[in-house]
Amino acid sequence: MKKELEKTYDPKQIEDKIYHNWTEKGYFHAEVNPNKKPFTIVMPPPNITGQLHMGHALDNTMQDILIRFKRMQGYEALWQAGTDHASIATEAKIVEKLKEEGTSKEELGREGFLKRAWEWKDEYGGRIISQLKKLGSSCDWERERFTMDEGCSEAVKEVFVKLYDKKLIYKGSRLVNWCPVCNTSISDAEVEHEEKAGHFWHIKYPIMEDGKPSTTNFLEFATTRPETMLGDTAVAVNPEDERYTYLKGKTVWLPIAEREIPVIEDSYVDMEFGTGVVKITPAHDPNDFEVGKRHGLPEINIMNDDATINENGGKYEGLDRYEARKKIVEELDSLGLLGRIEDHSHNVGTCYRCHSVVEPLIKEQWFVKMDEMIKPASEAVKTGEIKLIPERMDKTYFNWTDNIRDWCISRQLWWGHRIPAWYCGDCGEIIVAKEEPKVCPKCGKSHLKQDEDTLDTWFSSALWPFSTLGWPNETPEYKYFYPTDVLVTGYDIIFFWVIRMIFSAYEQTGKAPFHTVMFHGLVRDSQGRKMSKSLGNGIDPLEIIDKYGADALRFTLITGNAPGNDMRFYNERVEASRNFANKVWNASRFIMMNLDAAEVPANIDLSELTPADKWILSRANKLSAEMTENMDAFELGIAVQKVYDFIWEEFCDWYIEMVKPRLYSDTDKTKAAALFTLKTVLINMLKLLHPFMPFVTEEIYQALRENEPNEAVKSAMEESIMISNWPTFKAEWDFAKEEAEVALIKEAVKSIRAVRTDKNVPPSRKAKVIVVSDKEEVRKVFTEGESFFASLSYASEVEVQADKSGIDDNAVSAVISQAVIYMPFSDLVDIDKEVERLEKEHKRLEGEIARSNGMLSNEKFVSKAPEAKINEEKEKLAKYTEMLKQVEEQLGRLKKN
């Protein structure tokens, strides 16, 4: 039964049906196959709380393009999919839901809360996966993983215990970033710095003299956080600062807190900034923490976990941090210890999840020691073992690796991988183990309690490239598919995830997790703004798919895309992509209708092809080579532009138009060659386009395959375009001579069309075309291509000659390389109508000249009008006079005829 393409392309009718067929046939599934080379991509696992947004759409479109390309090239291509438990985000969502229900996680208890969390995962965890399927993602869903599934959890425990045994994981009290809303520590990478308007408050601390605070001598400094002075344990000056040498060994009085604190000397202090004096608060500032360690200063925490002032804040206890700030400033002012207040815009650390301002607090937490572990990760990029695309990301990468601090991995949350550490209630021993110990190995008692904290989400995500393949077990999948090949991700998570995967892979497997990291930019709105809920400018990819189809969205996201660069998204671009899909559809329908009406040879002797056939085959041949090179270099935006230009311009606008006279003829002996070429190029074109527009190309390919009358040819065609062979360069299809010949004819056609456009000649008006060239080989090109050349140039007839003999002097000419094209003027223009038009124009110009002359001879106008206005009128007069002269010349020529 014949499969006909509908008159109009409707993605809604085909996309779900095609995707279902792909999954049913198992085309996305990859197996360990010693006969094939593997190619692996791991999907950045979206959060189970996630809803598909444009960033996901871009990220997964790029991965899908690469995996489809490699699959067609014959690789055993695995796109490993999965989702992330996203501890902070998921817990926050569930807590919010519980609040709506009038309860809390504390009321449920840990066990009850985790039961709800798993129910949440079951309900919402698959939502984003189903949305990724709408996009056409050809992941191996049979291998889908979750960061808290049994295998990944085993890997997490294996790594934690291993690193602890190597003393690379430790527990200690250090300054951490604390989110007072999420109520957990977060790592440096999870702190986003936002520009916020604030103030510099200049504060004076009295210098202690004879055991009393001086009323005349003060040390002045500026701070953006006056409330933290409650935890000051010193003020510091630079040892090289001669202004303060007299203060060596002295102390100052800390007002409000009413304590005496020392003046210390430390090179950390910038002498050139402000007064050269800095207050030191070790418990609430990372730099002060380091200074405090060097000088043995006490660490006074003045804040509760919810950012209210604790008992160390004296009379300010219980106040919110900002309310305490306000009251402290008022009290300092009343004591005469407040100097000027400056407006100050500065970067403030905020939680990446809830965007509240984080507080540096000293907490007992678990840390990963980074100074040694980061070295292989840094070296891998330096030596090129891992390549970052674009190269400019190297600088960002090294800026992080060179300044990395120990990674705080514990989180005060219940949802996540619980830290595999137990505390003995009798002897205080800490036992770190993969399984819960029965008794304490030190004292033999069984009074054991597991650590309450969970691990940072990124701890498990860092193991993703190998944990998903069965590590720590030496599974066949791990041996075959690891290391993976390419990671595609946004530049905004280079610290969160990319670097952590790299150092974790070297530490655990001794290998790089992938050889290339391809960074893409953000998808911004039409004004270049970041899409956000607050701006209300987010665009739902699912709505775009519903309106225009997944192919149109994918094509839009990749067109003009360059690694690492942000892109603007607007609907006009999606409409243009849909129009392109329609162009491909309509061209395919036209070709298939002609294939149905005639017998098409399965193979053809190349000598039977016309120069036009050889030209398009040669162009398609070169396109496959160029696109392969671009795809291998991850230049997806360049590759897609090339296939677009080829299909729209060379194939549809030129070749199909060139062959129409042959298709419509029953006597043309080259008709079979035209049909063979159309079909061959169409199939290759669909294959090259497939990674970018998988649905429309599959639907057309299936129709071609089902309608193939030759059973041998049909059986040789793969049952799906996605498992067909990627077109490769064929030396026998390299027709440089014919390419040059058709280029010459195209140049002639473009010149003729330009002349006709200039003279407003409608396509329906045919004109004789005379090609004049003293070169025999040029004349031969036009003689052999006469049939399609005449059609494309709207010619009534074509003559090819060696000289200009017999051509009227008034013939319109167009010069091209190695030839001149002539067209009789009377063929192009209806002389009577043209004379009538020019006489009207002559009359109009005379009127304009009379008007200009009248104004310029009017003394009133000349004396009162601005000089610019007078000059403008003079320019008009000169222009009209020149135009009148040209019209008169044209009229003179026409009336002679």
TrEMBL record:
Motif interval(s): 'HIGH' region: 46-56
Aminoacyl-tRNA synthetase class Ia domain ranges (all copies): 17-568
Localization of this protein: Cytoplasm
Family (UniProt): Belongs to the class-I aminoacyl-tRNA synthetase family. ValS type 1 subfamily.
Residue ranges occupied by any Methionyl/Valyl/Leucyl/Isoleucyl-tRNA synthetase anticodon-binding domain in the UniProt entry: 613-770
CDD domains assigned to the protein according to its UniProt record, in alphabetical order: Anticodon_Ia_Val, ValRS_core
Origin: domain of life: Bacteria
Purpose: Catalyzes the attachment of valine to tRNA(Val). As ValRS can inadvertently accommodate and process structurally similar amino acids such as threonine, to avoid such errors, it has a 'posttransfer' editing activity that hydrolyzes mischarged Thr-tRNA(Val) in a tRNA-dependent manner.
Name the record gives this protein: Valine--tRNA ligase
Enzymatic reactions: tRNA(Val) + L-valine + ATP = L-valyl-tRNA(Val) + AMP + diphosphate
EC numbers, comma separated: 6.1.1.9
